[in-house]
UniProtKB/TrEMBL annotation:
Co-factor requirement: Mg(2+)
Matches recorded under SUPFAM superfamilies: HAD-like
Active-site residues, record numbering mapped to chain: 246, 248
Region annotation (Disordered) ranges: 1-33, 100-148
InterPro entries reported for this sequence: HAD-like_SerB, HAD-like_sf, HAD_sf, PSP
Comp. bias (Polar residues): 1-25
Residues passing through the membrane, by range: none
GO cellular component: cytoplasm
Short name of one Pfam family: Hydrolase
Lineage: Eukaryota, Fungi, Dikarya, Ascomycota, Pezizomycotina
Official protein name in the record: phosphoserine phosphatase
Length: 464
């Protein structure tokens, strides 16, 4: 009986060919591209050598990945030496003022007939005056394209990447820069991000003072609708001990002298002088005497009536509560008047309150329109002197002090403090102050100390 021969599957032509006719018949094939470095090749071989099979499968309920990666290779062959200076940049997204992508109605996708074009405006903080009539008749420089409406109304990843690219381009000559960042308020879509980079630019080519006002950073702020505060990293950046505040338009939303002027119907005259004085256009002491003279005849009990009118600024109570929990000494130094400064110090738990004293006619119980001569006028020089004397009295170095104000009479104080913040300040002050913030709440100042949102909430609750 004949045995059956098992059939063998013969190779077919289709199995011998690849999916490409050109590859099958190409005589001179290009060399395989080398996309690995020698370090990656040796590293892969070493990892294969070090692999040891584990016969026991891990229990998923008990064994978890720590997230720590160990390697025998140094992650950074050229790490920066210990003690290299660092700079901290705190980036705030200006959520109260989102930039709309269309500047004019006729540039919008659905313009309506008869809609008027908005009048041209000068961006706040970009020039000493916001009055277009005082500017030279030249076409304004083109504004950078707003990007926050494209990538999100927060500090987006692309915004952060752009900032890091700007930092890489700043040092002269070129230096390798290391950076890290933290989201201070929330992980997803953060409004406040802290970026630490090192080393800073060589001061021979770019000083820290010039870096704070560098045109590349200014343009970045305009493009992404953010504000950048730069500080030198040190233990004293995070651990301050004395906070000095201006009163009018800082801790409170009002200008007290303008409120008093309403009682005698000279509010317009007084407010015009106040605005020019706060923007540095007038000598403060002379302008104060001029305004006080207009208050002659106002009842002396006007300050009691004003207490119901005064509005404490958003976040002022929370900020002072948090600083008090950290053991800060706090003071209000005001170009306003002593009765309201004392009242505000009581409301916010401040340790010091210094302001101007108005002379009162005891016979008529009205203001005489003069200041009390025995008390010095609280002008720019006096504020700076008081900052230093209060710090010295409490044995606190100036590097551990904070000063916050909005007017030109605050500039000397802001420059002298370890951290000087122009808060929602006048245009000239924003240009000249060491740092500026235009947020919605004074609580934002706490982020400059490296505190996170959870830390701030815990501090506020302590004294609630």
């Amino acid at each position: 009986m004949a045995q059956s021969i098992p059939s063998r599957q013969r190779p077919s032509l289709g199995q011998m060919r690849s999916s490409s006719f050109l590859q099958d018949h190409q005589q001179y094939k290009p060399p395989i591209p080398i996309n690995q470095t020698i370090g990656e090749v040796l590293g892969a071989q070493m990892e294969e050598t070090l692999k040891i099979a584990n016969p026991i499968s891990p229990d998923p309920e008990r064994v978890t990945d720590s997230g720590i990666i160990h390697s025998i290779f140094h992650p950074q062959a050229n790490s920066l030496p210990t003690g290299t200076p660092r700079i901290v940049a705190t980036i705030y997204y200006k959520s109260a003022n989102p930039v709309h992508p269309h500047f004019h109605p006729d540039a919008s996708p659905n313009p309506t007939s008869g809609e008027r074009l908005p009048s041209p405006q000068v961006p706040e903080g970009s020039a000493p005056t916001a009055d277009m009539d005082k500017f030279p008749r030249e076409p304004p420089a083109p504004e950078p394209e707003p990007l926050d409406h494209l990538y999100g109304p927060y500090v987006s990843q692309l915004c952060l990447t752009n900032f890091l690219q700007i930092l890489e381009a700043l040092p002269t000559p070129y230096q390798r820069t290391t950076t890290s960042h933290r989201c201070l308020d929330r992980t997803e879509q953060p409004r406040v991000v802290e970026v630490t980079f090192s080393p800073p630019p060589d001061p021979k080519y770019l000083s820290f003072k010039d870096l704070r006002k560098h045109e590349s950073i200014w343009r970045f702020e305009r493009e992404w609708n953010v504000e950048v505060v730069l500080q030198k990293e040190s233990v004293f950046r995070r651990h301050k001990r004395l906070a000095i505040f201006d009163m009018d338009s800082t801790l409170i939303k009002n200008e007290v002298i303008d409120e008093i002027a309403k009682f005698v119907g000279v509010e317009k005259e007084v407010s015009e002088i106040t605005e020019r004085a706060m923007n540095g256009e007038l000598d403060f002491s002379a302008s104060l005497k001029e305004r006080v003279a207009l208050l002659k005849g106002v009842p002396a009990d006007v300050f009691e009536k004003l207490k119901s009118v005064i509005t404490i600024a958003p976040g002022a109570r929370e900020l002072c509560r948090a600083l008090k929990a950290l053991g800060y000494k706090m003071a209000v130094l005001s170009g306003g008047f002593q009765p309201l400064a004392d009242w505000l110090a009581e409301q916010l738990g401040l340790d010091y309150a210094v302001a101007n004293h108005l002379e009162v006619d005891t016979a008529t119980q009205t203001l005489t329109g003069k200041l009390v001569d025995s008390y010095p006028i609280i002008d720019a020089v006096q504020k700076c002197s008081l900052l230093k004397s209060i710090a010295e009295q409490n044995k606190i170095p100036l590097s551990q002090t904070i000063a916050v104000g909005d007017g030109a009479n605050d500039l000397l104080m802001l420059d002298a403090a370890g951290l000087g913040v122009a808060w929602r300040a006048k245009s000239k002050v924003q240009l000249e102050a060491p740092t500026r913030i235009n947020g919605e709440s004074l609580v934002d100042i706490l982020y400059l100390l490296g505190l996170e949102k959870e830390d701030i909430e815990e501090l506020i609750e302590m004294n609630n």
